[in-house]
Amino acid sequence: MSRLPERPGQRIDRSRPLSFSFDGKPRQGLAGDTIASALYAGGQRVFSRSFKYHRKRGEICGCGQCANSLVTVDGAPGVRACGEPLVEGMRVEHQNAWPSLGFDVMAATDRFGGPFTPPGFYYKTFIRPRRLWPLYEKVLRRAAGLGRLPKRQEERTWETEYRRRHCDVAVLGGGGAGLSAALRAAELGADVVLVDDDVEPGGALLVEGEHERARDLAARCAEAGVEIIFGGSALGYFDGLVAVWQGDTLHQVRAARHVAATGSIEQPLVFPGNDLPGVMLSGGALRLAALYGIAPGESVVVATCERRGLENALRLQALGVSVSAVADLRTGGDEDLCEQLRAGGAELLRGMTAVRASGRGRLAEVTIAAVAADGRAVGSSRTLACDCLAVCGGAAPASSLLLQAGARAAYDQAANRFLPGSLPAGVSGAGAVVGHEGPAPSLLSGSLAGADSALALGFGGPEDRARAEQERDRLDAALAAARPRQAPPALATDGGKGKAFVDLDEDITVKDVVYAAAEGYDSIELSKRYTTATMGPSQGRFSQLAAVRALAEDTGLSMGELGLTTARPPWAPVLLGALAGRPFEPAKRSALHGRHRELGATVEWAGEWRRAYDYGDPAAEALTVQEDAGLIDVSTLGKLIVRGPEAEEFLDRLYPNRMSSLKPGRIRYGILTSEAGRITDDGTVCRLDEETFYVTTTSSGAAAVENWFSWWRADWQAEVALTDVTQGLAAMNLAGPRSREILSELTELDCSNEAFPYLDGQHAVVAGVPCLLLRIGFTGELGYELHCPLANARALWDTIVAAGARPFGLEPQRILRLQKHHILVGQDTDSESTPYGANLAWAVKLDKDQDFIGRWALEAQAEAEPPHQLVGFSCPGGEVPTEGAAIVRDGVVTGQVTSSRRSPKLGQSIGLAMVAPGEAADGTAIEISDEGRRILATVTTAPFYDPEGEVVRS
Amino acid sequence: MSFLLTCPNCGTREVTDFGFGGEATPRPTAKPPRRELNRYLYFRRNVAGPQREWWVHRSGCRQWFLAERDTRSNEVMWTALPPDAPAPAAAGAGAGEGR
């Protein structure tokens, strides 16, 4: 394993070797290596097989942005080898090749499948016969692919934290321009966040021999108070918020001003064989040499159409890489660089470019020729032996974030770039992303953007403004002196055979783009979708420009007329888990939950609550309540204190019945409706004193009722205070004929029917615990609801159970309440249910003077027949129909069963159902269709148990 | 969608801290005719432009307040508790803001 001599700026630590395996064979790398650089240093040139044709593919960008370097690491597919740091003991495997990377049987598609696999081939071919699609899909998914997910996956254990960061200026991109922008804005006093996706800020400076300047700038930024988020990808721009994924944190950076300094992406050249391992971007070759001390080849040829390629060739020379020849498509310009290259031993071929790369699975030689405007080789050509061809087909600004923010890309002919223009307010660009390329212009551009952002926010003074104007002039002058560029042809070729790729990720050739255009897909958005060019892992980073150019060449339209496809987030790949955040499944447990567990309760979900459904025998528990005494935890009920001089009027306006006429210490049942007169909740209201009411709601409706009350309170500006004590108080219902006897033993309160009648609420100390006692008919038996502080709940529960009450759960409670026709909002009602249809007309007082919520709609309902009526029913045959089963008359569904249970006390199958008005009379025979079963039932309008309510009043 | 809202009690927060109550629809003062009642109950203006609307600081003080927001740009012109809110531009004479 050979490396170039040690130099400052390299990332590797030669004293710390790391061991890993590739396809089962042991390999060596160094600390600081990426997986790809370690493999490359070890002689590996083929990294993957291509998506469609299974062609051998090697290193291209060196920065983890394309599909060529996708490998499977420790079982996880789709890892980008040239972006992933090497870790001791990694198990690295190739993807998309069988049986091996070197010999892949599917590579036959390359040789024979070419003519048969144009764009749209799958859509057209595998559509018939339809029934075979599942089989086709299975085969195609295996053939084309980017790795395979393991069948069994471990549960995700890591969690993502969300962090919100508000700042004055956010700088996206930590290259020279970004660092300068951040530094300048911070020096002017702005709170600045800088985001960079590399392991250290510096961007291109780090590979261009300017690492010292990068580190100096970063240090000065830190000193000036800039927060630098490195190793974090800016995923997208969302209305002023930039999401940045950094390991296990998702930063949501919101800034008053954004500066995008995202740089530019070097573009490949298009010629036959341009995908051979050994053909790479000049920047990729430079990264290998500069950061990891690896010579990209024994003999390197450079092909470029811009100054950038010459600069990179010089840098490669300076790092000790042998550059044998440099082809520059331009016929003149940059003579100084050419002279230096020649001095370094390179042959200069001006006005020429690569028209073919060849070799058996690996680059062996490249053909260089002058080309006509259509890309055809003209004149004599040169064939050069080499093992690395470093290409530079210009650059594309990494403008995605700017475009997402609302900028529009326009093609600048002279610059040979799509440059983002008409930037939205508060967003600016700096450096190469807005065409300010080169070391000096990009630093100036950054500094100016930082100054402009901070000045716009009111930082700095007149002298800072003056300095910014000076910088603007200097930048304009520097840009005016820019060197000439030449756009490469859409396809440079010697006229021979061979595939020339515009998109390596998806295996899309120039021919494919032309074929799609001939089929009518001649706009860039349609071409993209039909050919899938730019839809691979690199998301068009290395293919968009080539695809547009190929389409422009074919259609005769200009680059500007064709334009770019829409930029959408995410700009960088992100794990779904990072966006999902930490698993959040809240469970609410009452203060008595532990006791229920100890008592052997069956615990089930009830909304967000974990509740005791029963303690083993629901029927026996229900019977005990009816014949002796039972105790149920009802802490989940919503509990709201409404207090203030206008409290009674407030409640009168919310409830359809009267609450103002309640005397202190008395309780009334009430329903809540929407303005449309639909039942939304129900519960009891106890007046504690003149100005204070204690309101209970259903368990599931607690939050909604609190929200509803506070909304109207705000709207009416009512002089009431709302206190939600749902989570602060526990509640339990002591019910059954013996409940009075049990309660009397535990309190000094006179519990006689005369002193504490039905629907009375009283404060008392029970078993040493201060309680609010509500005597209500919750279960249909004599009963008391005890509300007490959470801390005392267990003691109180234990004492009452010890005194003889049997714990009962939700299921027996359902039976008991059903016997009384007590509705369960949401179970026996739906969003259309009205009080009139739910037998609750008695809870609506239209003769009230007060205007109240839903009054007008209820008045209209009162005049018409409700479309459905809620009635009780019993099944003489003893069947218990499924809740939700249909009520059928003459083969037509007329209603449905909403609740059904078997009552042990009555020895009967009972239920509630919504039926058509014509079926609502007492004694009507109805038919229930329950999953094929036909069940006969009889309508019962009066409650099944204690219809006169004598028991609850006794 | 992402923008900032200023709770009159707590100050400026991310919009995800808040619950949306929809456009403020003045509640009729007296019993409206059937057609108007239906309009009040079921119809919303759904404007493209500045809209007077309800918000609640769900993850904060739980106060309901009014705001004017441009539905096209999410620019928030003002937020205020109902007593401090500017009078509605349209003379929709109603008792309070309604839903």
How does this model look, in words?
The complex is a heterodimer of chains A (954) and B (99). Helices cover 26% and strands 28% of the residues of chain A. Chain A is an alpha+beta fold. In chain A, helix 12 packs antiparallel against helix 13 (462-480). Chain B has one helix at 34-42, and strands at residues 4-7, 11-14, 19-23, 50-56, 64-70, 76-80. In chain B, a hairpin with a 3-residue loop joins strand 1 (4-7) and strand 2 (11-14). Helices cover 9% and strands 32% of the residues of chain B. By secondary structure, chain B is mainly beta. At the A-B interface, helix 22 and helix 26 of A face helix 1 of B.
Mean pLDDT of chain B: 89
Helix fraction of chain B? under 10%
Structural class of chain B: mainly beta
List the total number of helices of chain B.
1
- The shape of chain A, in one word, is elongated
| DSSP strand content of chain A | 25-35%
Low-confidence stretches of chain A: none
Largest sheet descriptor of chain A = 7 strands, mixed
From the spread of the alpha carbons, the general shape of chain B counts as globular
Q: What is the topology, as strand order, of the major beta sheet of chain B? A: 3-4-5-6
- Total of domains of chain B: 1
- Rounded radius of gyration of chain B (Å): 14 Å
